[in-house]
Model the fold of this input.
Amino acid sequence: QVQLVESGGGLVQAGDSLRLSCAASGNTFSIINMGWFRQGPGKEREFVGYITRSSGTTYHTDSLEGRFTVSRDSAKDTMYLQMNNLKPEDTAVYYCAADRFRLGTRVDHYEYWGQGTQVVVSS
Done:
């Protein structure tokens, strides 16, 4: 089993930056990929970006226009999401996810999920 705990959410103003963290514990050696998703009010959960555990290769959704960056600290088994120039439409619950077998951008590509951290961006 793998446990994921997100932190770092909060209330910010448009244009601000915020960094989310996702700490992994348990059988983390089995994970090959970790990703970030978000779910805005009344919306479906959507992919933000992922990072592979072995090489640190990242992939981000194009719709974020380069404002968000996924990174990791392997020594701490922690993944980060740096969010810059935040906009009100970025308001969402942000989830961290991990999988033992796949690199993917869909919700069903991930086996383990955190509880989410709320980000609210005011205009």
